[in-house]
C-alpha cells in the first residue's frame, strides 16, 4: 500500500490543526485535527480491506488469438478481467509487451469499478524480428475513491508466442551486393539414384532394376530408359551462435543478435522440415556457453527454437568433444616452433624469431571460445557436416582462424557476419562507408577460403541509405583532390 500526495497533504493538515489547537488552547481545532486523523486511519483500513477483496476476487486472463505468427505480421491479444468490488475503488489493468514487440495502437488501460466490474479488450501487436517472446502477467493498480492510497501487483498469467521468420524487407543477407532470396538451410544431395525428385534420363543398362524403367520414355524413344532421381540424404547442421557483448549492439529489436536469431531460426525450421540432425553451440565471453549435440528429433528442434528466444540465458549441459588428430594451421605452427628448439642450424636460426613472435598469437586463438566451439563441433561431426557461423566482425582474427580450421578439414562452412558499422549511431557517413569497405574486404577474405561461403547480415534500410549516399561523398572527395 502506498500513500498518495493527497494523503500526505491531508495528514499534514490534521497535524497542523491538532498542533495549532494545542498552541492556542482551542478544543475546536484540536478536535478537528483528531477527527481528520481518525478519518484517514478509517480510510486506510477500508482500502486495506478493499485490496484484499480485489486480490481474492479478481480474475485476469491474457491470451493470444494465435500462438504462432510470422515476422511483421500483426497479431491480437485478448484481455478479460472481472472482480467483485465490495468497497468504492477503481482497478486498472495494464499488460506490458516484451522488448522486441511493437504496440502500434497503444494498449489502453482496462478499468473496473463497482458499477462496471468486468471488461474485455483486444489489442494488436507486431514483432519485427522472429523469435519467441514472453508476455508477463498484467500489472494491476488499485486506487481508492478519494485518491489517498494505491496498491500495485500482478495478477493472472502470461503467455509465450512464437514469431516465425519470413522474407523480411528489414534484413539483407547476401554477398558482394547480391541479396539471396532462397530458403536458408535447403540443400541438395548431389547424388543420383532412386529417390523422389526427377533429375535425368538415361538408357537402360544390364543389371539395372527393372522397376526403375520409365515406360513412357521407353515407348516414346523406342528403347528402355531409366529415369534417375535425386537421392534423399540428411545433412548434419551445426549452428555456432556468437552471443558476446558486441552482438547486443543496436536498438532493442534491431540488435545484431535479433537479426542473427531470425536467420538461425530459419535454419532450425529447415532442418526440422528435412529431418536433418541439428546441433546448437552458443559462445559467451569466456566459454562455449550452451551445447546441444546434433540430433534429428522433434524435441531437439523444439528445444533449439526455444533457446533462440533466450540467447544469453542459462547454459545447458556442456559436453566436451573428442580429440582430432589433424592439426590446424596454428597447431602446425606451434609444433614447428617446438621442433626448432635446440636446433642450431642456419635454417632454425632464421625461422625461430618468426615462430617466437607467433606463439602468443597461437595460444590466444586456440584458447578463444569461438575457436573452441568450432573444434568441438568438428570433433563430434558426422561425414556430412554443414557448419554455420553467426557472428559479427569484432573478433576478426579469431573468426578467420576458426574458418581456416573448418576449411582445412573439408567441412562445408557458411558464415553470416554482421557489420558493426550498421549498428553504430555516432559515426559520420564517410566513416561508416570506409568501415563498410573494410568489412567487405574482410568478408571477401573469408569467402575465398576453400569450402567457405561468407554472407553479410545487416539491416537493409541502413545499408541502402549508406550505399545510396556514398556516391556523392566519393564525388566530393574526388573534387577536393
TrEMBL record:
Domain spans labelled DUF58: 200-310
Protein name as it appears in the record: DUF58 domain-containing protein
Query: Region Disordered: which residues?
Result: 460-481
Start-end of Polar residues biased regions: 472-481
Q: Which domain of life is it from?
A: Archaea
Amino acid at each position: 500500500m502506498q500513500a498518495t500526495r493527497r494523503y500526505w497533504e491531508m495528514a499534514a493538515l490534521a497535524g497542523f490543526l491538532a498542533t495549532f489547537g494545542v498552541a492556542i488552547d482551542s478544543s475546536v481545532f484540536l478536535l478537528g485535527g483528531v477527527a481528520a486523523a481518525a478519518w484517514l486511519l478509517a480510510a486506510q483500513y477500508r482500502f486495506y480491506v478493499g485490496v484484499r477483496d480485489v486480490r481474492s476476487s479478481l480474475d485476469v486472463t491474457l491470451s493470444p488469438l494465435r500462438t504462432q505468427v510470422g515476422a511483421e505480421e500483426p497479431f491480437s491479444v485478448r484481455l478479460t478481467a472481472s472482480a467483485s468490488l465490495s468497497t468504492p475503488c477503481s482497478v486498472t489493468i495494464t499488460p506490458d509487451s516484451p522488448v522486441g514487440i511493437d504496440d502500434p495502437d497503444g494498449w489502453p488501460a482496462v478499468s473496473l469499478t463497482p458499477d462496471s466490474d468486468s471488461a474485455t479488450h483486444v489489442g494488436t501487436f507486431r514483432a519485427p524480428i522472429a523469435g519467441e517472446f514472453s508476455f508477463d502477467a498484467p500489472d494491476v493498480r488499485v486506487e481508492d475513491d478519494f485518491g489517498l492510497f494505491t496498491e500495485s501487483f500482478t495478477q493472472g498469467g502470461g503467455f509465450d508466442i512464437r514469431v516465425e521468420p519470413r522474407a523480411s524487407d528489414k534484413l539483407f543477407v547476401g554477398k558482394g551486393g547480391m541479396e539471396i532470396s532462397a530458403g536458408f538451410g535447403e540443400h541438395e544431395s548431389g547424388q543420383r539414384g532412386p529417390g523422389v525428385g526427377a533429375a535425368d534420363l538415361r538408357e537402360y543398362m544390364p543389371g539395372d532394376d527393372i522397376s526403375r524403367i520409365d515406360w513412357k520414355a521407353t515407348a516414346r524413344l523406342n528403347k528402355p530408359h531409366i529415369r534417375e532421381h535425386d537421392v534423399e540424404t540428411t545433412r548434419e547442421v551445426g549452428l555456432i551462435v556468437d552471443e558476446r557483448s558486441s552482438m547486443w549492439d543496436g536498438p532493442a529489436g534491431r540488435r545484431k543478435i535479433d537479426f542473427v536469431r531470425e536467420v538461425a531460426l530459419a535454419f532450425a525450421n529447415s532442418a526440422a522440415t528435412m529431418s536433418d540432425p541439428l546441433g546448437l553451440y552458443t559462445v559467451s565471453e569466456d566459454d562455449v556457453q550452451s551445447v546441444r549435440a546434433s540430433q534429428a528429433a522433434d524435441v531437439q528442434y523444439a528445444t533449439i527454437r526455444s533457446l533462440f528466444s533466450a540467447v544469453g540465458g542459462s547454459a545447458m549441459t556442456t559436453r566436451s568433444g573428442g580429440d582430432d588428430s589433424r592439426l590446424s594451421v596454428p597447431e602446425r605452427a606451434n609444433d614447428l616452433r617446438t621442433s626448432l628448439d635446440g636446433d642450431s642450424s642456419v635454417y632454425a636460426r632464421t625461422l625461430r624469431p618468426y615462430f617466437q613472435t607467433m606463439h602468443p598469437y597461437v595460444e590466444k586463438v586456440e584458447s578463444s571460445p569461438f575457436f573452441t566451439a568450432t573444434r568441438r563441433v568438428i570433433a563430434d561431426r558426422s561425414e556430412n557436416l554443414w557448419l554455420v557461423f553467426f557472428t559479427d566482425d569484432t573478433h576478426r582474427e579469431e573468426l578467420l582462424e576458426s574458418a581456416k580450421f573448418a576449411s582445412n578439414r573439408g567441412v562445408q562452412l557458411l558464415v553470416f557476419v554482421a557489420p558493426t558499422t550498421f549498428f553504430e549511431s555516432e559515426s559520420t557517413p564517410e566513416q561508416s562507408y570506409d568501415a563498410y569497405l573494410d568489412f567487405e574486404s574482410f568478408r571477401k577474405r573469408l569467402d575465398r577460403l576453400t569450402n567457405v561461403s561468407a554472407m553479410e547480415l545487416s539491416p537493409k534500410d541502413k545499408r541502402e541509405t549508406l550505399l545510396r549516399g556514398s556516391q556523392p561523398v566519393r564525388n566530393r572527395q574526388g573534387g577536393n583532390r
